[in-house]
Amino acid sequence: MSAPALKITDLKKTYATGTVALKGVSLEIPQGDFFALLGPNGAGKTTIIGITTGLVNKTSGTIEVFGHNTDTETELAKMQIGLVGQEVNFNPFEKTLNIVVNQAGYYGIPRSVAIPRARKLLTDLGLGEKMDQNAMTLSGGMKRRLMIARALVNEPKFLILDEPTAGVDVELRRGMWDYLTGLSKSGLTILLTTHYLEEAEQLCKHVAIINKGQIVAMGTMEEVIATHHSGEPAKDGYRGGRLEEVFLKLTSDK
Amino acid sequence: MDAYGKWISFYTMLRKDIVRMFRIWVQTFLPSVITSCLYFLIFGTVLGSRIGEMQGVDYMSFVVPGLVMLAIVTNAYSNTSFSFFQSKFFFRGIDEILVSPTPPWLLIAGFISGGIVRGVLVGTLVLLISVFFTGLQLSLFNVGIIFIFALLTALVFALAGLVNGVYAKSLDGINIVPTFVLTPLVYLGGVFYSVHSLPEIAQYGTYINPIFYLINGFRYGFLGIADIALWISFAVLIGMIAALIAINWYLIRTGLGLKQ
């Protein structure tokens, strides 16, 4: 049996400020899955991603990426991952193409391979005409797509998207999802965090909902909705989709 | 990542930093060149002619190694500290490396190599300018010693700059050390005078200044004269390198100041 793309066991994190961000999270993402990790702001989603990718130190617990322990086989684990972070984190004075090519370099990919690969990715993501321009000239949506190109340049088996469509208009969002769905169908495992729950409901096979540092629901999208959705029709006020109702039920303080 | 992949990662960091330093050459190369011209003009030409000789050589020849060393020290230090701070503080560009399989020791090597390149480049520029002021009379007693001390001094201060870059939480944080610590130590480390020309108590003060040993060894390479034995200078240099590598390794490996 093949190892899961991501296996997290009893992950705990307490920040230096004393904030307990994760209280023993365990989850598994099968290979080839499109997995949604949902939760309100401050629930611990970005902390999980930060620890998995090496940006945040954990307090305890273990993480394996395609069977490679991130503590003992750090390089092998990181080789599998591509990250699209929540915040724009590239030098805006760099040329768009160079940002992607440099990222390939950090993965040990020579420029002779990285340059054509970066050009293709940028073209596929609609940034072909912006390749030789400084990143500061890109719009918000273009910057997001640049980050996707950068995350894919090492040809990862596991792509992590931390709120990739925040602040992106509807048309661009749909284009991004079409592109990423195509990648998912080709076998890429995707972990998605988003506040657009209707998108997660449509795109993802599995879902985990985290609240206050603990997983409160996990399974296939249908299982989670079937288990937690009351099925009652709307009585008053605005009502969202089924996943949104489940989400609010599981994470609301009321 | 295999050895070739690690080389590519190192080359990527170095190339990126060299492109950056040449793109902003007015900030990276020009200040040291102008400052050195002023030093050579004032201390060498104007005052030097009145001072006469220092340790048996004319004053201009005496100050050249110290001024080259000053350029190496300040440029290697500020390049690494600023480059790392910029990468950490502005836009979190450091995350690009942290998420990659680039190991911590390679990250250290990548960042300090830019500092070494700039330190040695600016030092060479200052040396070329000194040739003009000394009227092509520059003494080169032992090129090998000059090269080794230049390279290792750039390494020491690139490593020190990285420690500063890791700890700094604001732009002030990377300017305080060069202004209030580094520059006084260089000036009091024997750039403009021999330690033997100082009162005895001041000599003891100089001996606890690590930069004194670097300038001493470097000057020996040019003039064949030294205030203390060359091996002591070399030992101090190696000791500083070892200590700073250990500090940097600890800081980057644990992610102190980098990871939450």
TrEMBL record, chain A:
<dbReference type="GO" id="GO:0016887">
    <property type="term" value="F:ATP hydrolysis activity"/>
</dbReference>
<protein>
    <recommendedName>
        <fullName>ABC transporter domain-containing protein</fullName>
    </recommendedName>
</protein>
<dbReference type="InterPro" id="IPR003439">
    <property type="entry name" value="ABC_transporter-like_ATP-bd"/>
</dbReference>
<dbReference type="InterPro" id="IPR017871">
    <property type="entry name" value="ABC_transporter-like_CS"/>
</dbReference>
<dbReference type="GO" id="GO:0005524">
    <property type="term" value="F:ATP binding"/>
</dbReference>
<keyword id="KW-0813">Transport</keyword>
<dbReference type="InterPro" id="IPR050763">
    <property type="entry name" value="ABC_transporter_ATP-binding"/>
</dbReference>
<dbReference type="InterPro" id="IPR003593">
    <property type="entry name" value="AAA+_ATPase"/>
</dbReference>
<keyword id="KW-0547">Nucleotide-binding</keyword>
<dbReference type="Pfam" id="PF00005">
    <property type="entry name" value="ABC_tran"/>
</dbReference>
<keyword id="KW-0067">ATP-binding</keyword>
<feature type="domain" description="ABC transporter">
    <location>
        <begin position="6"/>
        <end position="237"/>
    </location>
</feature>
<dbReference type="InterPro" id="IPR027417">
    <property type="entry name" value="P-loop_NTPase"/>
</dbReference>
UniProtKB/TrEMBL annotation, chain B:
<dbReference type="InterPro" id="IPR013525">
    <property type="entry name" value="ABC2_TM"/>
</dbReference>
<feature type="domain" description="ABC transmembrane type-2">
    <location>
        <begin position="23"/>
        <end position="255"/>
    </location>
</feature>
<keyword id="KW-0472">Membrane</keyword>
<keyword id="KW-0812">Transmembrane</keyword>
<feature type="transmembrane region" description="Helical">
    <location>
        <begin position="174"/>
        <end position="195"/>
    </location>
</feature>
<dbReference type="GO" id="GO:0043190">
    <property type="term" value="C:ATP-binding cassette (ABC) transporter complex"/>
</dbReference>
<dbReference type="GO" id="GO:0140359">
    <property type="term" value="F:ABC-type transporter activity"/>
</dbReference>
<feature type="transmembrane region" description="Helical">
    <location>
        <begin position="21"/>
        <end position="42"/>
    </location>
</feature>
<dbReference type="InterPro" id="IPR047817">
    <property type="entry name" value="ABC2_TM_bact-type"/>
</dbReference>
<dbReference type="InterPro" id="IPR052522">
    <property type="entry name" value="ABC-2_transport_permease"/>
</dbReference>
<dbReference type="Pfam" id="PF01061">
    <property type="entry name" value="ABC2_membrane"/>
</dbReference>
<comment type="similarity">
    <text>Belongs to the ABC-2 integral membrane protein family.</text>
</comment>
<protein>
    <recommendedName>
        <fullName>Transport permease protein</fullName>
    </recommendedName>
</protein>
<feature type="transmembrane region" description="Helical">
    <location>
        <begin position="139"/>
        <end position="162"/>
    </location>
</feature>
<dbReference type="InterPro" id="IPR000412">
    <property type="entry name" value="ABC_2_transport"/>
</dbReference>
<keyword id="KW-1133">Transmembrane helix</keyword>
<feature type="transmembrane region" description="Helical">
    <location>
        <begin position="228"/>
        <end position="252"/>
    </location>
</feature>
<keyword id="KW-0813">Transport</keyword>
<feature type="transmembrane region" description="Helical">
    <location>
        <begin position="62"/>
        <end position="85"/>
    </location>
</feature>
<keyword id="KW-1003">Cell membrane</keyword>
<feature type="transmembrane region" description="Helical">
    <location>
        <begin position="105"/>
        <end position="133"/>
    </location>
</feature>
